[in-house]
Amino acid sequence: YATVSYRTCCCCHCPYNNYSMMAGFTFSSAPSGGGFSFGTNDNNTAAATTPSFGFSSGGATSTNNINSNANLDAGPSSSSSPPPPSVRALAWDPTGTASLSLCPLPASSEIGRCGNKGEKNNANLDVFLSHDGTGCPTEETECLLRCLDAREEWIANAPRQRQQQSPRRGGPIAGVGVTKLSMDYRAAMCECLMRLQEKAQTNCVGNNNNGGSGGGDAVMKDDDEERNNNMELLSLTYAISHLAEIFLLPSLASAMDSGFHDQTFDASSSRLDGPAGSLTADTVRYLRLHHSAGSVLDLPEVVDMLESDQPEYYQFPPSSITGNNILAGPYDHPYWNLLLTLIVQGQLSDAWNLLSYHSACRHAEDEAGDGGELSPEGQGFAALRALLMSAPIPAGRGDAYCDDAGLDDYLEEESLEQVEDENDGEEKVYGEDPGDINQLWIDGVPPNSYLLWESLPRRADKLRTLRYRRDLRHCGGRIDDEGAELESYMVPEVYQPRVAMNAFRIWQETIRVAAFPSGGGRGVLSALFQRFPPLPQILSILLGTIPHSLVAGGNATSGGLTWSQVLLVELLYARPEMMPEDIATRARVAMSKGSGGGNRPFQEIILSIMNGGAGQVVETMFSLCGGSSGAALPATMTSLLCNLLVDAGCISAQKDVPASPPLNIQAELLVLAAESILSSFSVQEQSDVGVRTAIRLLLPNAPPKQVHRARSTADNAESNDMEDDIIYEPRIAAMIAEALSHRLPSTDAEARDLLELCEGMVRLGSLLIADACESLAFSRALHHNRSNSGNSNFTREVYWLLRGMEVQSCWLPEQRRRTLGFACRRRFDSLCEGSAKDLIAMLSVAAITNFSKTSEKEKHEKELSSALQAAEDILEGVLQDEAMVPVLKGHLEANLLQYTVDIALADAKGDTVRVAADIVHCLEERCLSEGDHSGVVSTLADPKLYPEFLCIAFALLVKEDSSQYGRPMEFASCAFTVHGIHILMARLTQVLSWEGILCSSPRPLGASPSNRPSLSKKEYFSAMRLAFSKGLMRAFVSHGPSTAVKKGIKKRDGEVSMDEELELLLSPCI
């Protein structure tokens, strides 16, 4: 799709941006396409209207210049001579990171007209959306952020896992981490789906109660349709990720190393190579969750049926659309259709709950309660209860202690153990008594035998017991009762096919004896079979047999079983020990037998994933599940699932394209997801959330990465055995830099958070991200420069300038550092130098001016105080920054500002010696550091400031001379040393030379006689030279040769002997 290219100095915050459209991209009256759309100033997608501008091939527009060959007319290009071009300003909207704002044409806007005083001229801006964003509801936003939190936690634990992993591909610990991360993703999507469904139901009830008419109904209908589409995309994403987790990602048991199991789970091999029955429980959970209608016992129509006198003969009224559709089947009464559905799905706990409402069962229970003996029917129901409540089928019987979604066992473990540890025995009593869940119904088949099909049975049994103990505490029971022990060593630690199949065979043999005895005998269920003919057909399914009438029904609504139900029956009752590699084959057979037709393309996708087709997962997520729709959550989940498959070694990130460079699928999906996030949040005016979320998504894969590799034999043997390589992927770094550059942070906290996010990547050496971070800091500095109605907050401005300088000079690796950066350094240098210049100018005026009026003096003092306060604020911002103070130790402008402030403060205190020393320090030449300034000889003060410093020194010496008038020379004193007077004389000589006062200095070439210095100026500098000479005389008297000079040692600050000073003073000027 078409793209927008731009050139920029630093970012959209910099005033020197020069944006241009990509050559060859044409805007015309045709509707926009290729991923772009037009909008108005409220960021809504525009209707199919003609844009008021156009670009032809080869043309470009910018804020600074215009190409002479550009055709910028309002319509398509023609063969006739084009009209004069109209220039439009184009810039990224800093409040919307995915939108370009275009200023209206001057001829058609009111922006250039002058209004009355105090009126504001408003104009609508055309907005160009660079990507198609569809928005992101609150529920999806929380899901997205929860997924990113889980991934960051997994990445934080990766180094510890890497130390524990084996040398095999991926390593078992790393593989388990990938699977757990996938579970976190699914848990977030599951919660999001439930919240969206609750919201949809609430809105539906509200719409039905409130009614509506006209356009309001149409809007609500569109909203409902969009919400349903989002839920459908998310449901497909949830299903595909669950299926990929089962058949592609490593098993949780791959980290175990035990000798109890028949075949060791190996993370280096595919799960399809696992032992018989190892994927049956997970596959059953998938089919129950994504291809079944779910529990219907709580529906109002079903509740009414169960509360009737004879629910087995109950019929829904014709107006009950829900009941007649959901409970349709091969039987005339919905009661038996519901029982059939529960048995097929393996929800045997709900099946017994349904049977307990049968009128015959309630009658038998009443008879037993009165002390009478159980009738044959009562004995049959008791046998049914024992058979159903002890079934050792894969994935459990659907009771409150089973993990139906494959998530609770992983996500609930930590919270259950924490509650167990914190329990003090004083918990409030509420809830019903759960009874004894470990009651033995059939000899040789413990009630928890269904856990034998799990990959980690002992761990699953522990969690089952923790839930039971929690419920016992809630109802006031004793957790130390028999059957509530926390550890059960009778359950194997890992999956053992033979143990699971042994319990399963005993259970099915018990069913045959009780229901279908051999030799034509009567079983305990014979009385029930005679009275209720549907019951033997339904119970025959428990033996893995599907009655012919249920398979040949034609479709699901007319009585036939769907393909998922056929496969469930085979996995639950016929072949629970099915080999993992055979599941796809049996699913294909079930699809050919099942009724209802179904979505054949989607069924082929399911079969491909079951066969280990990892590439099919990414393709389906991208094309079918909304990965390319522009929606933030589907695009992000597509990218995250692709990362999981790459980390697990299922697919390769690189894809070879003929006659083209290799394509990095992982990077492309990440960039696409980031663009979807930015545009979606920009549309709903939450760009701050969008930028942070997109950066969090990209950062783990951002360049450069440090990869550990063993040193070669040629390397130094004394060095470490491992070294770091940097692998650079510029696509992701450029996307992060673009997102940062297009965002103008609204608060310091937002900018600080973004910098902290990117600090790790900058420290690894990413120059693109470093430049973007500097521009981010520069934007906040400009904000504080213009805050407070034009009165700058210098302390905050300096803080952010130093942050940008810190990024370039401290965060980057030493070999990639740019000393103090670019834009921030230039602004910081200008700020320090300008503040010092203003303060010195004020001090110079105050030193040489005698104010005749009090008002003028007060005004100048106020200006001087303001300049001093600004300089102190800047200096305070520098000195408070512990990170940058060592770096700025030799910085010219910062040191000049510090000495200038010292001069002002010392002058206010009357400390003339300190004033003199600081002036000399600013004017003295010194060799600057080799690293920062290449050994250049210079002064702290800019040569343009020499006259101001000399004027201050002149005033100080004149005042000093006047105060000592008439005193003996031997008691004379001078604030300047002999070395200081020499510095003043040297700078004065330079100034006189520049002013053309010295006769030895010829006038510049081409200068006219009118450029000669005035007489007053000559007299002023002559008086200054005289004052410096008198000061030198007093300095000779008061500062005789020091001890260091007598010993021939050079004094501190470069001060030399008196003989050398005299030689320098009397030597001819240069």
Radius of gyration: 42 Å
* Distance linking N and C termini: 67 Å
Please, what is the average pLDDT?
Answer: 77
Overall SS class: mainly alpha
- The helix tally amounts to 38
Beta-strand percentage? under 5%
Q: Using the alpha-carbon principal axes, give the shape.
A: elongated
**Tell me about the biggest sheet?**
4 strands, antiparallel
Strand order of the largest sheet: 3-6-5-4
Q: How many beta-strand segments?
A: 12
Q: Enumerate the spans where pLDDT stays under 50 for 5 or more consecutive residues.
A: 1-79, 108-115, 163-173, 257-267, 553-558, 711-723, 1042-1053
Estimate percent helicity. Answer: 40-55%
Question: Can you describe what's shown?
Answer:
The chain is mainly alpha-helical and 1070 residues long. It is built from 38 helices and 12 strands. A 4-stranded antiparallel β-sheet has the order 3-6-5-4, with no helix packed on it. A hairpin with a 7-residue loop joins strand 7 (654-655) and strand 8 (663-664). Helix 3 packs antiparallel against helix 21 (614-623). 39% of the residues are buried.
